[in-house]
Amino acid sequence: MLPQSEWAPFIKRRAAELGFMACGISKAEFLEEEAPRLETWLTKRMNGKMGYMENHFDKRLDPRLLVDGAKSVISLLLNYYPAPEDQQPDETLKISKYAYGRDYHFVIKDKLKTLLADMEAEIGAIGGRCFVDSAPVLDKAWAKKSGLGWVGKNSNLITPGTGSFYFIAELIVDVELPADGPIRDYCGTCTKCLDACPTQAITEPYVVDGSKCISYFTIELKDQIPTEVAGQFGNWVFGCDICQDVCPWNRFSKPHQEPQFNPAPGLKDLTPGDWREITHELFTELFRQSAVKRTGYEGLKRNIKFVVDGE
User: Fold this and answer.
1) What are 175-213's pLDDT values in tens digits?
2) Rounded to an integer, what distance in angstroms lies between the CA atom of residue 186 and that of residue 238?
3) Pseudo-torsion of CA 60, 65, 68, 73, nearest 10°?
4) Positions at the binding site for cob(II)alamin
5) Which of 13, 200, 238, 281 has its Cα between 20 and 30 A from that of 275?
């Protein structure tokens, strides 16, 4: 068994071996700073019809309600930025880069389970849980507290020298580990993300009205898309990367090294006509293991029709 002084270095080293681009640690405690911000956001109905965001309010703010005896939150980042040759051309209908390959929930959960098992082998019995964007955890807040980046004006976590094209995941454990400190905000006077958002979803610096976001309309919203936003989506039919694409920090983005995130063969070759005529069989073939399955075939067809025809 490792001495306690070696626990954190081992965890970070093993995380890197598993492909994570960064790992930081924070103390498991109530999120004092985020509590009023979350309450205001919900009160203003910026969650739209994402009713689940209103559930488990206390658990979102206190990890000790998710894991008995929780003492530490281990935050991890996994790069998904695709190589230039793998990216869809600007003239076609587009899906968000995070959905090019295999659904990240499965990829990351496997890595987290391995990391937790390796920790138990070297540290001893651990009470802990893995979280990948599927439980009431404010992942950006924890990653910020652990020094992995700052939350930018587009509400994404941004890391110096890296950008923001990565997934965030957590291990909440009942083991006391030395906490890393936060870093400063480097957005400065830049407003590129606010200026570029076609639906004005970034209502002010650091505040995103989720109910106005293209990602909300094309993924979360199950009803008909409101006609008042017709013509504002550009060519995005699943998600949107605009506020990240224009962020100066993403000029540092480097292609990921995770084969499971490589795009399905033929994805970037689809023309607007191919998208318009996509069959259920092709949808299943292209997105069998992709996050695009979340909107479903009919949902994607709805999005394509709305972008192409404005209805």
Assistant:
1) 999 999 999 999 999 999 999 999 999 999 999 999 999
2) 29
3) 20
4) 60, 133, 154, 157, 168, 215, 240-241
5) 200
| Token pair listed for 48 | 């739209």
Residue type present at position 134: S
Rounded CA gap, 64 and 208, in Å? 27
Q: Can you say which residues are annotated as belonging to the binding site for [4Fe-4S] cluster? A: 187, 190, 193, 197, 213, 240, 243, 247
Catalytic residue ranges: 133
- pLDDT for position 139: 96
Quickly list H helices, the chain: 7-17, 34-43, 57-61, 104-123, 139-145, 192-196, 214-215, 242-245, 272-276, 280-287, 296-309
What tens digit of pLDDT does each residue of 62-71 get? 999 999 999 9
Q: Is the pLDDT of residue 142 over 80?
A: yes
CB of 115 closer than 8 Å to CB of 151: no
| Annotated domain spans of the chain | 4-83+101-173, 192-309
Q: Would you list which residues are annotated within the binding site?
A: 60, 133, 154, 157, 168, 187, 190, 193, 197, 213, 215, 222, 240-241, 243, 247
Give the global pTM: 0.95
